[in-house]
């Protein structure tokens, strides 16, 4: 545990902050496994290629990731002053979110559990 005053501790923690432009989508109604199929297709690509891949990908998660990528590009241009032509996707990952539990009636009075999974999707860009 760090020693010192609370403001000093906060200053030290904020000094180590990641300055790369990014965007995060929390509580996306898609499972981590399904989101990762889309994220694997664009990881390491430049943003123009990635937007093209996402626009023609038939998966549901691709629409979510495309919107998230455009948000990350806008963050890079407006907050960090980077040019969109030089950007590429350095990191993109999906973490597990909460699971909604539902019940489906089955034969002979039984009830089966249905788990509707959520994920937190993050896209981090960088400049070449």
TrEMBL record:
InterPro entries found in the cross-reference section: Ribosomal_uL22, Ribosomal_uL22_bac/chlpt-type, Ribosomal_uL22_bac/org-type, Ribosomal_uL22_CS, Ribosomal_uL22_sf
SUPFAM superfamilies reported for this sequence: Ribosomal protein L22 (SSF54843)
Cellular-component GO terms for this entry: cytosolic large ribosomal subunit
Compositional bias annotation for Basic and acidic residues: 9-20
A Pfam family: Ribosomal_L22
Keyword vocabulary terms for this entry: Ribonucleoprotein, Ribosomal protein, RNA-binding, rRNA-binding
Example of a GO biological process term: translation
Superkingdom per UniProt: Bacteria
A GO molecular-function annotation: structural constituent of ribosome
Region feature (Disordered): 1-20
Purpose: This protein binds specifically to 23S rRNA; its binding is stimulated by other ribosomal proteins, e.g., L4, L17, and L20. It is important during the early stages of 50S assembly. It makes multiple contacts with different domains of the 23S rRNA in the assembled 50S subunit and ribosome.
Family: Belongs to the universal ribosomal protein uL22 family.
Subunit structure: Part of the 50S ribosomal subunit.
Protein name: Large ribosomal subunit protein uL22
Organism of derivation: Parasporobacterium paucivorans DSM 15970
